[in-house]
């Protein structure tokens, strides 16, 4: 074995909160391992979030192993710098064998068992490999974007920082998931004229009947719902998250209210040709569906309150504050004064560097609670890895403890 080759029990690929959480358990169990991180432990929070980014789940849900939120505002929402401080303080709470700026470029399986991991100039031979690098690798931007006049600036949501970053003029935001809806508000509050292409993302109220909706759902064990019990089964992993915000103490994001205040709403973007945006005729349907999801969540909370005999203030049903006109007229970008397009349509995972038979025909990894059919090969930190709480600060510790148990062969209690 050459000098740059090493043998170790476990290689964890990814040093964010998921990889570090597993490392915390393995350190406690004295398991020989290494955490390989392409950037730094907090780089995604620091480098891929806008300035006014904040959590959409309350601080009390931040429950990394051995490191629960200990601040003075458990029902508040940490802003970007506070999130970075929280993750950094977790990293500082123990001594993980973390190697930053170490990009893994290849993972292959040995014929005799175990795996070969190539990172920078080193080769690691391990019995166990855990992929904790997330699923948000390649920013999605449609092919036709390359034909748009370069005078119109185009950036992806991961590169957006603030309104001052964009040229003067109107902004077209494409996508109404969590990032798109929150960025629209960020621009709108800065006095920018915004147009939003509304997709099929659902919405949820921030507060209902005297409490944060997350508190109600936690009491109802929604975050413990396992993917095999979800009506969509594995399809739950492809669902867009509900849009809501924790900004300034938390409030609803109502796209209809935005429209009433001057934001231009359009249906799903179909294409842009010759600087003219064409939309599907689904704006009303998408707004109505988002409201229905919100109403259904409220109805489930009402049922819980009734079953438990809880005293809670009663709220009147939501009444739409704005309705779209019929039609889906195209939008001439230059005539509308649009100088920037923000693509908020998500990411694609990139696992091309993994040569292990753990993927389906759509190149998506297949697992059961993070455990694949390849012995000793696991995933961690992905949405719906096991429960609705997976991939969030609230559920990572449970998933990490489970995988630590699979690696060590014994039951590991959740910290």
UniProtKB/TrEMBL annotation:
Pfam families: Pyr_redox_3. It comes from the Bacteria. GO terms for molecular function: flavin adenine dinucleotide binding; monooxygenase activity. Keywords: Oxidoreductase. Gene3D superfamilies: FAD/NAD(P)-binding domain. This is MSMEG_0569 family flavin-dependent oxidoreductase.
